[in-house]
Structure formats: structure tokens, C-alpha cells
Amino acid sequence: MLPGFSVTSTEDVKTIALSDLITVKTIKEATREDPSVIQEYVMAPGANAGEDPHPRWEHLVVLEGVFHDGEQAWPAGSVISGKPGSVHYPSSLGGCRFFAFFPNGMGEAA
Questions:
Q1: 1 band by pLDDT with thresholds 50, 70 and 90
Q2: What is the C-alpha separation between 30 and 105, in angstroms, rounded?
């Protein structure tokens, strides 16, 4: 491994059930040096997360299926960015998988 780099495989990370239809894997945890977080979400067909407000930036990359934000459907290959103070309503009629990037962490904004 080159100095200054780290690698994590999604296969090596524990899957957490957020509900019967939504799972998450935290691929990169926040550290004191780097507050960013990277997660992989899987939404089974019919999943609905309800209101999801964001105090910090969030970037989603839809990898498989179709992600719905509460207003519009986004197919695989879409990149969705939500600025601080934004709200969306994640759901998926047919199921989807996406990465979520939180460059400044996930907690309350400072």
C-alpha cells in the first residue's frame, strides 16, 4: 500500500439493517483527521425511508436500479448532490443500490 492511502472492500464491512427493506454498510468511517463518511445503501423493492433532512453536504451515486428522491426518479449512473439544509424522501419502487458520500461528516452542522 502506498503511503497515505487506505483500502476497504465492501465485502469486508458489516451490513446493518435500517429497516426490513433498507440496509447500509459504512465503508469509510469519520476520523479526527478526516470527517468524511462513505456508505453503501441497498433499498429492496418498495423501500421508503421517509423524510431525510441533511445538515451537511451529501452526494449519492446510484449504482443499480432506480432511486426516487420524493419528486423524481434517478436511474443507475445518476449523481445526486444535496446541499446543507436540503431534504429528500428516499424510496425505490423496484429496488436500488447507491453510495452516499458525506464529505464533512454526517452529524449536526457546526
A1: confident
A2: 7
Instruction: Name the CA radius of gyration of the chain, rounded.
Output: 14
Q: What is the C-alpha separation between 52 and 62, in angstroms, rounded?
A: 17
As a whole number, the mean pLDDT across the chain is 94
Residue 56: other Cβ atoms inside 10 A: 20
Q: Round to whole Å and give the CA distance between 67 and 84.
A: 20
Q: What is the 3-state secondary structure (H, E, C) of 12-30?
A: HCCCEECCCCEEEEEEECC
CA-nearest of 22, 55, 21 to 39 is: 22
SS3 at position 10: helix
Give yes or no for residue 105 having a pLDDT over 90: yes
Report the percent of the chain where pLDDT is more than 70: 97
Q: How far is CA 89 from CA 35, 47, 49, 56, in A?
A: 25, 11, 6, 16
Say how many residues make up the chain: 110
